[in-house]
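Form 7-S
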Amino acid sequence: MTDEIEAEDAPVEHVALSDKDFKEQLGLVIPQLRAFGRSLSGDRDLADDLVQETLMKAWAARGRFQAGTNMRAWTFIILRNLYFSQVRRRRFRGEWDDLTADRILAAPASQDRHVELGDLQRALLQLPQSQREALILVGAGGFAYEEAAEICGVAVGTIKSRVARGRVALEAAMSDPSLPSRRDGPDNEGVSVLDTIMAEVSELSRNR
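Output:
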């Protein structure tokens, strides 16, 4: 019995991927990293810079990645930390660059050079960063609440609350007639907001 308890308490042996396998797995998450980066920053160029730096940091730390664990969640944590480091360095006000957000929301469709935003994406920019992030991770990224909580460094209940509040706020923003629109499309009434987020972010992933 003692031997069994000791075996259960024994530390898990660290197993790293080969460089070839690590590079292959890392390559598979690049489109999702780009989509997540654009969702956080609202800027395609900044997102691409974040992804590039994320890939470099992930490659440098490849020996610490445990084979069989979640590469996507691991790299999302790296990208998120890089983003907030840039936010702190640039001394943005609050949780989001209000000037950038205002410029994007006010820009005519033909002048949206850095980010191609649909109505939903414009509405997302108006949400608090924490709610937007939670919606993107759980609704579009397909992460479980537990995984999203690990990425954000918060409790599972906090993520659930952010998703719930973000969903309500997003619905309200989408119904706001003052929301700038870049297209006159069919009415999306009855379509799940999170399903729409999935479609929007998937489009970002394809548009590399």
